[in-house]
Amino acid sequence: MKRYDLIVVGAGPSGLSAAIEAAKCGMEVIVFDENKKPGGQLFKQIHKFFGSKEHKAKIRGFRIGQDLLREADSLGVHVQLDATVMGMYMDKEITVRIGDGIQHYKGDSIIIATGASENMVTFPGWTLPGVIGAGAAQTMMNLHGIKPGNRVLMLGTGNVGLVVSYQLLQAGCQVAALVDAAPRIGGYGVHASKVSRCGVPFYLSHTIVKAEGNDCVTGVTIAQVDEQFKFIPGTEKHFDVDTICIAVGLSPMSQLLKMAGCKMEDNPRKGGQVPLCDKYGETSLKGVFVAGDVSGIEEASSAMIEGRISGIAAACSLGYITGSRLEEKYQEHHKALNGLRQGMFAPENRGKILKKTEEGIDISESLLQKGYLTADEIEKYPGVTHQKGIHPVMECSQNIPCNPCQDACPKKCIKIGENITSLPAIDEKAQCVGCGMCVAACSGQAIFLVDEDIGDGFASVTLPYEFLPLPQKGDMGTALDRSGRPCCQAEVLNIKSLPAFDHTNLLTIKVPAEMAMNARFFKQI
Amino acid sequence: MYTINDRSRDIGEFIPAEDDDMLICRCEEITKGEIRRAVHDGMFTLTEIRRYLRTGMGLCQGQTCSRLVKGIVAKELGISPAELEPATARVPMRPIEMNILAAEETEAI
Amino acid sequence: MSSRIENHPILGKPETGRKVSFTYDGKKYYGFEGEPIAAALKASGVMVHRYTQKEHRPRGIFCAIGRCTDCVMVVNGKPNIRTCVTPLEEGMTVETQYGVSSIMQKRKAE
Of A30, A125, A394, C84, which has the most beta carbons under 10 Å away? Predict the structure, then answer.
């Protein structure tokens, strides 16, 4: 039986981060992962992350994964792939299936970072081929280069449902609709708006009546539900789709901890069965730590910080660093973690209906129910101003912990301030030069450059564009408004793709001046 | 004062429902009706349901249906899912052939 | 009809292994070496991987990460192979799984 200072189970964002920190402290670390590729869900995340610089904001998930792997590798962390941890026993012993054999390993400390599994809902036909989890859709299109379907209906409007819907569009699939039994969109408004402006309708207070088809999905019927989630007769709507994607939340995959005898709790706010643990992630079993979704469902950004904390805590538990050094490093990570847990989507606000932003602005009901801000509402936000010449219009209406736009502007036009969740505001004294760095830096794709008067009664709108084929200068097309409805004809004035934009192309279109504050997407003819 | 597992407690009659034929455990093909009926047959815990019906005992080891079964049983007992004692977690975590499970190597690589 | 993504706006052209052939229910198919069997089948439009033991209902890809085991098929004569996590190899024999074997059973007698 091989012995290690630290065994990490799961090579996702939290597991790798934990291994890195522990290895930095001088520990001999092995990481087991059942998959053939490391990185957990990070390599399926092709969108830019929220947060601040220290949280790796505006970097796409898969690149964060690549960085973590490189760092782990350079520190001599042994990542054993295709190795399924089958069980965890007393005294920190685990059994691992590698190839056609079972092997025993013992860790002087163990960090469980197994992540989560997808929740499911049932409806007639839910076992038909063509009904898939949202994670399956991401895996197929972003890892294996396969379209999950040609026409997809998404059930669930949490961040997973919203982000995967957008990714489906990027992969060249059609998204027929987003459906959620809840009366409000669960994820970030900016993620919803990205999908909405492409013309995808949202059906809130709706759910699936049945999936249709004999051998695979050929269609789906949805209907409106009342407050008790009962179908309202006569509200049925049918869609011809070949794929139904389910994104209704995640549950911590905590079975290993339970079988090893950790004290567990059933905590709906954390997504289900989670171990009781202290601030360092140490469970009721001494030397057994947790990090990431297995200890409560959050996001990859917080999982990475939790991993770092449990990594140093494991190092301290074996005497690799002193208690005071641990406390010092903990404070630093804790501050970063706290930063991510602020704002409207903070854990303590889960399930609450907020009426106003931190700035006291009414929260848009249209955004929460239809996925877009209306043209009137947009004027209320501090990021939206009218100026002569080119200037950014920041349609950021929810307090989320994210601030890359502030750093992106070389002219300091954008102010967020000390509080990372504040809505971005325009510094009217600073002069925008139209470089577009803010447009590409906004993970929510909520910043546009607008010049309300470029002469002859026209305006220009520069928007983030992450689709193929790229429109060419001079192309004519249709401008779509925030709801995805055509609003006017548009001509492509420019398309800019810089390495610094990291695949977010800046598309500048010419529209009639009165459409400057409406045109937000471009559809090629 | 009753406890959740007090079998003399009255949970009412089994009332057939429209969605009783909804498949819940995909691997073992167990329906919602079968699970609900099992509760009325006296299976109050998830472990008992598992042994009685084989829900979550198939290839996937309950990865997909555990949460669904828990919700159904809790509802039938008139309690919240969080109050229901979770099913026991056991080795192996993933499907594995018996010849491999039995082929323990004494020296790790 | 292929459902492969030729060029992705963020990820570019997908990296693939060499083109290999395999058989699916006796017919010759092509895919890329090392990709999951399920991906190669999906690219060729195959949706049904198996029919269940009790109800003989069709199943296909569901979780795509080896958890749900709904996509199992008979591969090289061995049943219950999770095709979503098993890499494709040249010359593989992939068969629809009926219950736990590749032999089609009679529909449930009723």
Answer: C84
Domain that holds residue B82: 20-101
CA dihedral A272, A273, A278, A281 (to 10 degrees): -90
Q: Which of C55, C68, C80 sits opposite B63 (nearest CB)?
A: C68
Each residue of A460-496: pLDDT tens digit?
999 999 999 999 999 999 999 999 999 999 999 999 9
List pLDDT tens digits, range A147-179.
999 999 999 999 999 999 999 999 999 999 999
Tell me the residue range of the domain where A242 lies. Answer: 120-246
Partner-chain residue, chosen from A102, A256, A273, that has the shortest CB–CB distance to B103: A102
Q: Which chains are adjacent to chain B, needing at least 3 Cβ pairs under 8 Å?
A: A, C
Residues of A in contact with B103 (CB under 8 A): 100-102
Number of domains in chain C: 1
User: How close is the nearest chain C Cα to the Cα of A346, in Å?
Assistant: 29
Of the residues A288, A315, A340, the one at which a domain ends: A340
For position C93, which CATH number holds?
3.10.20.440
Please give the single-letter amino acid code of residue A292: G
* CA separation for the pair A316, A330 (Å, rounded): 11
Alpha carbon distance A428, A87 (integer Å): 60
Tokens of A476: 């004519």
**Residues of chain A predicted below pLDDT 50:** none
3-state secondary structure of C98: strand
Residue C110 domain-assigned (yes or no): no
Q: Is residue C6 part of a domain?
A: no
Residue C33's domain spans which residues?
Answer: 19-98
Binary contact (A103, B105; C-beta < 8 A): yes
